[in-house]
Amino acid sequence: xxxxxxxxxxxxxxxxxxxxxxxxxxxxxxxxxxxxxxxxxxxxxxxxxxxxxxxxxxxxxxxxxxxxxxxxxxxxxxxxxxxxxxxxxxxxxxxxxxxxxxxxxxxxxxxxxxxxxxxxxxxxxxxxxxxxxxxxxxxxxxxxxxxxxxxxxxxxxxxxxxxxxxxxxxxxxxxxxxxxxxxxxxxxxxxxxxxxxxxxxxxxxxxxxxxxxxxxxxxxxxxxxxxxxxxxxxxxxxxxxxxxxxxxxxxxxxxxxxxxxxxxx
Amino acid sequence: xxxxxxxxxxxxxxxxxxxxxxxxxxxxxxxxxxxxxxxxxxxxxxxxxxxxxxxxxxxxxxxxxxxxxxxxxxxxxxxxxxxxxxxxxxxxxxxxxxxxxxxxxxxxxxxxxxxxxxxxxxxxxxxxxxxxxxxxxxxxxxxxxxxxxxxxxxxxxxxxxxxxxxxxxxxxxxxxxxxxxxxxxxxxxxxxxxxxxxxxxxxxxxxxxxxxxxxxxxxxxxxxxxxxxxxxxxxxxxxxxxxxxxxxxxxxxxxxxxxxxxxxxxxxxxxxxxxxxxxxxxxxxxxxxxxxxxxxxxxxxxxxxxxxxxxxxxx
Lengths: 265, 315
Fold this sequence. Notes:
Chain A is mainly α. Chain A has helices at residues 4-28, 31-45, 54-61, 65-77, 82-86, 90-93, 100-134, 142-167, 171-195, 204-207, 210-213, 238-262.
């Protein structure tokens, strides 16, 4: 009979197995390769017109980065659970001696790790570019802060995708609804609120503006999937923005896990 | 006290308040038994299996595997089960080796054991040459065999198979049937859900009939066989009988009536096995050239129809 100690050890081991298996699947489906390739290629596009300072360059290269985070979250978490049910792979995966919660936790962690890898790659390329263009000494100090914000936003984006993947039946609908929520619905709500002079502090995509706002350079010409200040010049506060991202992470992850664990055919 | 490999107690599964999929199902399957679980579509066979394998929670009642409650201790209960449920999906972008290695780890097998059992299982289902090929290129039969390989990878005590030959061609059906026979000879407990009675009759010791979520009848194949025997023996002779031979045949005292067509005769008798033996002996001693001799029985299909028919009338 299992004690709480052995049960906890089993949970950890099973979660580890699930993470490994999910990462293997991301590799085999070439999803990891595609998003990693985007993370390498996209920063290179910004060589077309290099601004005068390293800070401006970093700000510009990171302008579209929240979109890549959303794409990555959609690729790795958008169908993490719905696909098991839709493709009936749950019929071989679940009747095994492992807690369903550990399988789902593994899926989430694998999506987070894969997205973190994309974030890391993007910032490594950006750092190398900045060093090459402006010298190592010119690398903005705020880049680390921006990296941290990107990681936290990645957590929130993966959690939102994961929630829809647990809640919706079809892989296509779960991925599209999750993707559109982050890329369109939340930014539109944010836009409307600002038009009526309300700060959309509770919208996670608005908080994601911190990724570039930390550089203290304003006026990105175009920012789909994030927030474009059209009328009032609102900028997210650092502490509050981070708290909002963490709140989204917790709420959507816990809800997703609960729904997934109770889900039957 | 008998320890059952699989046991359920008053299993009830309701979907909302409208539909009762299982209505107090109690099963007792002894270790080493090969049990057919038979019933029409929608009878509750797959629901029972989903409860036994932890895929679905019962509304009430209990399910035990090797005496372990599946709902209370799923991790322990599922360790001794290998299951093939409906037509499962597979990860088509992986190879059998990659997929089975993961499941081997889930069953806490060592790397050495995984390597050995992976080869053995794939060999058993005739997929050795496909170990490193992408699963996406497999035919339906190969996919089914691969999922069986997954089910037996950890050498489970109990194998639960839900319609294992569904969608397979005759060769695929024969292969799966052979595999089940092999599992039976290895002492594995097999719980086989099927609506193909021929398949069940060929490989099972016991049959449980289920309809509308209730167990209607349960008996050994042997007893069912006895109950469906008719009081008729079919005899095939080498040549059509002459008038004199026909008279001789009718004169055999245990034979009540004779229905003769060409070289074949249907002989009515009292249905006792001893009488059947005596009739054969008399035929041989009277120099009849007997090519074949068999007691006529209705098929399991007829038994199934009669059992389900009774249920309908009662309903």
